[in-house]
Amino acid sequence: MLAGLAACGGGRADLPPVIEAYGRAVPRDSLARTVYLFNFTDYLAPSLVEAFERGYGVDVVVDFYDHTDAMIAKLLAGGIGQYDVVIAADYAVSVLRGRELLQPLDHARLPNLANLDATFRDLPFDPGNRYSVGYQWGTTGLGVRRDRAGDPAGGLDSWALVFDSAAAVGPFTMLDEPREVIGAALKYLGHSANTTDPAQLARAEALLRAQRRRVLTYASATGGRDLLAAGDAVVAHGYSGDMVMARAEVPGIQYVLPREGAMLWTDNMVIPVRARSRYTAEVFINFVLDAEHGAALSNYTRFATPNHAALPMVDSALRNDPAIFPAAEVRARLEILRDLGAEARLYDAVWTRVMAGR
């Protein structure tokens, strides 16, 4: 998607003084000229950018980040004054809240918040949705080229494909996301992805050290997806929607959630404490929460929507795909990454040593 699509052109002058849309009456003069977003790559439908610009006369400029730690680092380094809306993973919301880097939301300005499914309200990382609202949700597992992997004796639904050299079916990539990679190793070993037990983390570190020399690359979500689709990788550690997007291009791709357990996550819309225009940010959030727009977002990204009102408009093939909306018994094996506070340093140290190869 191109940042700052100029769909609105000179249309701002043609808009009425009060814009009635998506459950809100918005005074045109209260809107900023531009809304600045910080988001993962390829994670917002261009049609929604165009519709927002056309409907409100506000230009949309998007900066991209490749992984959550990079997003947090940029905000901590002063980025809180650069963006109006940031897409943040669940545990990242906790981190940013703890640093007092988020503005509370005015729910009176978000009537479409009523569209959010009850499952995605009042979550532990943000009780009462005071600072965040759901954007998309999904899982982290393995994309596998079934057309090249064959049928190994241990099956394809195991983290062994990337952690056990004897079970390898070909070149593989891992996400460039420390918590996801360490979490995958911990799940394979039978531990919680949120453990702070030094002995369990030491076992995961040893596994990752042994794995490192075999990893094709530590890739962004879209990078791993593209390597899998191109055939450079036979297995890619990645997110559900990205793997399903790749499957649309290469039918031989299968997305699996390893039987040892995997990660479930929610991405959320938040407003940094020094956002240039909180009001315009809330108008944008309410726009995304519209049922039709929530469906358009999921139909583009191939991720699951937390927007209950949007579900009937989500493509039926997507809505009925267990890779995107896993069954209850599968979800029971999934774990949400938590903000570990000061104990996060244990994971930072593991990652630093693994990447250093010492």
Major sheet characteristics = 10 strands, mixed
The N- and C-terminal alpha carbons lie at a distance of 39 Å
Query: What's the CATH class of the largest domain, please?
Result: Alpha Beta
Supply the CATH architecture of the largest domain.
3-Layer(aba) Sandwich
Total domains = 2
Give the helix level as a range of percent: 25-40%
Q: Which parts are unreliable, with pLDDT below 50 for 5 consecutive residues or more?
A: 1-11
Q: Would you kindly provide a written description of the structure presented here, covering whatever features stand out?
A:
The chain has 358 residues and is α/β, with parallel strands linked by helices. It has helices spanning 46-56, 68-76, 90-98, 146-149, 160-163, 178-188, 198-212, 221-230, 240-249, 278-289, 291-301, 316-319, 328-331, 344-356; strands spanning 18-21, 24-27, 34-40, 59-65, 85-89, 133-145, 172-175, 217-219, 235-239, 253-256, 262-270, 334-335. The chain has two domains: 11-137 and 266-319, Periplasmic binding protein-like II (D-Maltodextrin-Binding Protein, domain 2, 3-Layer(aba) Sandwich), CATH 3.40.190.10; 139-264 and 326-356, D-Maltodextrin-Binding Protein, domain 2 (3-Layer(aba) Sandwich). Helix 1 links the parallel strand 3 and strand 4 (59-65).
